Amino acid sequence: MLAKPLTPLPAVVTGVIDEAPLVKTIYVALRDFPEPAPGQFNMVYARGLGEVPISVSDAFRRGDRLVIAHTVRSVGAVTKHLTTFIEVGSQVGIRGPYGRGWPLEGMEGMDVLIVGGGIGLAPLRPIIRYVEARRDSFGRLFILYGARTPHDLIYKHELGKYTEIPNSVVKVSIDKPYEGWTGYVGFVTDLIDRIDLDPSRTTAYVCGPEVMMKVAVRRLASRGLKADKMFLSLERRMRCGMGVCGTCQFGHYFVCKDGPVFSYDELMNYLWVDGI
Ligand SMILES: Cc1cc2nc3c(=O)[nH]c(=O)nc-3n(C[C@H](O)[C@H](O)[C@H](O)COP(=O)(O)OP(=O)(O)OC[C@H]3O[C@@H](n4cnc5c(N)ncnc54)[C@H](O)[C@@H]3O)c2cc1C
Ligand code: FES
Fold it and tell me: Which ligand has the minimum distance to the alpha carbon of residue 43?
């Protein structure tokens, strides 16, 4: 916890990668920053414009610094600034890490099923890193990832490498036929029916547009997965990011503090209600 919890720490941008149209991954280096757990997020501050919650998409040590990646899609003022004007050497502000991430401890021995849509792969990527680093502790690793077009896929430079992780199954889809695309065409959620799933020993981790996550939980349930073995990461507008202001309220939860990751079990009463 920072001494002044709402004050961002200055962080220097050490790398910027073009991922897809309007999407960039921004690497920042920080000293004395807590190591984020998979699925946690940071508040990223663009000077003079404001702060936005962005998931940690990677984190590793380099010397005495912690390097953290944030994959950002331009949708409004702050994210447009981050993806347009930020370059190596720029300064941004970071506070965090916040929230309850993906449950991984205690899941040893289980098959891990990742279902990501579009930029939703960003908070799921640390799970892939986590399982890869402890490969013998988990069962099979399924990575199902979809985007609208081949150009919209993020982490193109490493998607192929996921297939080299022992005991992994990787399937990538795009929504509509595209010249030269030889992979699956259709929604990523269709892929759930195309894998050899053992519901008794699988934990599913899902992130993408809310409509995609709703379809995913239905498909997973139809394959026999229990609601307490499906986990979703929610996005809501946030201000404080730490359970103080109430902006992110979703039913009786504060998404920033109680989430952003929830089991489907926890969300069942709210997910299907319009306007929450
Ligand atoms: C826990 C969490 C993790 C997130 N991780 C990422 C990430 O890894 N990469 C990424 O690009 N984005 C992520 N987001 C979404 C990101 O925070 C919003 O896109 C951003 O706040 C928009 O701010 P803006 O000033 O650019 O646009 P604004 O002008 O504020 O908004 C532009 C549009 O986006 C919608 N919007 C704004 N904030 C949110 C929000 N929090 N959730 C859903 N819709 C919103 C608005 O309704 C509006 O339609 C995450 C959000 C949360 C809550
Ligand atoms: S953003 Fe303030 S309580 Fe969640």
Answer: 1
Q: Is the CB of 26 under 6 A from ligand 1?
A: no
Please give the share of the chain, as a percent, with pLDDT higher than 70.
98
The predicted structure's pLDDT at residue 275: 72
Predicted structure pTM score: 0.96
Domains of the chain listed by start with CATH number: 9-98 (2.40.30.10), 111-271 (3.40.50.80)
Identify which of 35, 31, 72, 37 has the alpha carbon closest to the alpha carbon of residue 53. 72
The strand pairing partners of 7, in sequence order, are: none
User: Mutation test of ligand 1: which of 17, 25, 100, 235 has the most ligand atoms closer than 8 Å to its C-beta?
Assistant: 235
* Per-residue model confidence (pLDDT) at position 2: 52
Summarize pLDDT for 105-152 with one digit per residue, the tens.
999 999 999 999 999 999 999 999 999 999 999 999 999 999 999 999
Q: Is 141 in the pocket of ligand 2 (CB under 6 A)?
A: no
Q: State how far the Cα of 192 lies from the Cα of 109, in Å rounded to an integer.
A: 20
Q: Is 55's C-beta closer than 6 angstroms to any atom of ligand 1? A: yes
Atom 18 in ligand 1: which residue has the minimum CA distance? Answer: 52
Query: What residue's CA is closest to ligand 1, atom 28?
Result: 76
Atom of ligand 2 nearest to the CA of 244: 3
